[in-house]
Write a structure and sequence with these properties.
3-stranded antiparallel sheet, about 5% helix, mainly beta, 1 helix, about 20% strand, FAD-dependent oxidoreductase, elongated, FAD-dep_OxRdtase, FAD/NAD-bd_sf
Amino acid sequence: MDAAQARGAELRHGRVTGVARRATGSAAGGGEVDGELVRADAVVIALGPWSLLAAEWLPPPPLDPSELRMEPRSAS
């Protein structure tokens, strides 16, 4: 952390309640911390076992078409 702070990073304590999207909507542009928007060049989600909580802040990941399998419906 010392090295990051020496280069201008700021450590903020608080409760993160969301991820702010850039105007293009394609990337995170910051986060909501204690109700305040904190802009950032990058957002790292490192919540350990609580990382699933961040799923409600982000859209689902794109599907890989190779993972899809189509099967005909049964004629019932």
